[in-house]
Amino acid sequence: MSEPATPPSGRPAAPTAPIAFLGLGHMGGPMAVNLVRAGYSVTGFDVVPAALEAAAAHGITTVSSAADAVAGAGVVLTMLPSGKHLLDAYRGTGGGPGLLAAAAPNTLFLDCSTINVEEAREAAGLAVAAGHRAVDAPVSGGVVGAEAGTLTFMVGAPAEDFTAVQPMLEVMGRRVVHCGDHGAGQAAKICNNMILGISMIAVSEAFVLGEKLGLTHEALFDVASAASGQCWALTTNCPVPGPVPASPANRNYEPGFAGALMAKDLKLALNALESTGVAAQLGPLASAIYDDFAADGGAGRDFSGIITDIRDKSAR
Q1: Nearest to 76 by CA among 42, 47, 115, 40
Q2: Which residue in 20, 104, 156, 280 has the fewest CB atoms around it within 10 Å?
């Protein structure tokens, strides 16, 4: 885990009641460390022993169970792999009490996982019914953003609960956007990442086409980055080495934002498209493309590595 960034000068830490942070992986770990560095009291738990060890080495108080972390917490922050994990954690499994039962009344449950919109709304409903408050705040920015404290948070919550969590989100992120009520944060994240996945495929196809037509990567980048083809997938996460030295393409596509995560997020977008009846064509196609990429060795590579798959298939 890289050393998290010190919060920018002048940004208020505004420590509140203790925070229980559940999910200390590649994203959650540095997010929790940034909270500790800003003066918050954080007690963390993760089912992976190595994640607990890394968190403890960076000053986070760690405990042996989620229930122990939640005891006495004013905020329960979750960063979990899926909506099922979140709902199981809230309800409890195997006959044991869930987080909602273990928490003190009126605890603020802040979920930063990326899950289905309906799962987010269900989780919020369970929390409110149990006498708590709920906020969904998925993130964009990847591991680099988590470490640097430059994430973007897309927040779904009543206005008063958004105000309550905003100071701690500003410690972990550069941009915090209130998107609406429960579930709106997840809706914004899903829409944004559908744009991102489609854009990366388009940029990658353009570079492979440019190669076939004799263009250098630099020439195509210099034109497209200053013309109507400009987008984040090109100018920040460029899928070829050289034009953007910080992009994962210069590190053999070490993520970054892994192909498996893009496949997951596009599947969430596909679920939303189907449930709402949107007549989309590119979103479902992008989902299928990234499913194949993740299944064929791209799961642990940066999602911009899709260009290698396009290039390989173009050589057949």
Answers
A1: 42
A2: 104
Other Cβ atoms within 10 Å of 299 Cβ, number: 17
End-to-end CA distance of the chain: 40
Angle value at C-alpha 242, between 236 and 294, nearest 5 degrees: 60
Q: Are strands 139-140 and 151-156 parallel, antiparallel or unpaired?
A: antiparallel
Residue-wise pLDDT for 134-151, tens only, equals: 999 999 988 889 999 999
Model confidence pLDDT, tens digit, residues 155-192: 999 999 999 999 999 999 999 999 999 999 999 999 99
Alpha carbon separation from 221 to 234, 235, 313 (Å, rounded): 8, 8, 22
pTM confidence score: 0.89
Contacts of 215 by beta carbon, 8 Å cutoff, 6+ apart: none
> How many Å separate Cα 8 from the centre of its chain?
21
Buried-exposed string 184-206: b where 16+ CB fall within 10 A, e elsewhere: bbbbbbbebbbbbbbbbbbbbbb
Confidence of residue 250 (pLDDT cuts 50, 70, 90): very high
Catalytic residue among 84, 189, 212, 267: 189
Query: Which of 3-17, 113-127, 285-299 shows the lowest mean pLDDT across its residues?
Result: 3-17
84: annotated active-site residue:
no
Q: How far apart are CA 14 and CA 258, in angstroms?
A: 33
Q: What is the pLDDT of residues 297-316, one digit of tens each?
A: 999 999 999 999 999 999 87
Name beta bridge partners: 152.
140, 175
pLDDT of residue 11: 43
